[in-house]
Amino acid sequence: MTVVRQMIETWRHVFKLDPDRAISEEDLRAVCQSGTDGILVGGSTGITYDNTARLMSGIQRYGVPCVLEVSDLSAVVPGFDAYLIPMVLNSPDPAWIVGHHRRAVERYGDFIPWELLLTEGYIVLNGNSAVARLTGADTGLSADGAAAYAHIADKLMTLPIVYLEYSGSFGDAETMQAVREAVGHARLFYGGGVTGPDQAKLAASLADTVVVGNIIYTDIGRALSTVEAVKSDAAI
Ligand code: 1GP
Questions:
Q1: Residue 70 is part of which domain span?
Q2: Any idea what the CATH number is for the domain that residue 133 is in?
Q3: Subunit structure of this entry (predicted)?
Q4: In the prediction, which pLDDT does 1 show?
């Protein structure tokens, strides 16, 4: 198992920061020193090399693991601890599964630090989210349909991460349960609508790693409260 795989296997809670959104120095410090296990840097729109590099150096002052979720080929900044590579499994457009990836390999070839890369099998389920609009993801899946994608990611593709993505809204309990049961080997990430301790605990009971994003920018106190809520959950 690679070092970066070992790292994410210990993650229970992570914050996701968007290079295209402003955060005060004070809030950035609070997020980085919250006791979270890591910071994901990523977003769907407006991601540039400069705003990504700026956010990375801001985070790295605090020593917390800092990982880039690659969404734009022009914004791949060296110096992150690891790079997460999304494949949106329920997109009808192969560009979001292997197409952009092929272009990246053609472009960067021998410079790719493969040992720092981890693939995420995304299942995108909130039709109103930017990521769903961008990728055209089939968000009308039943719980069984979502679980089928989870089996494919976990067993056929043996991906290290399955990411159940409800970005902006909290997930459907039946679907979360079905996906939980389908994932045996991969690390199961859940993200979407975790805005306080109650959702954080529920998500922590149904996923290995809980990702908290939006609330950082609207209510920093509630965002910080999710760390303890996730970590105090017995399930791991
Ligand atoms: C987004 O899964 C993350 O990619 C977190 O979702 O922004 O809704 O917390 P929220």
A1: 3-232
A2: 3.20.20.390
A3: Homodimer.
A4: 86
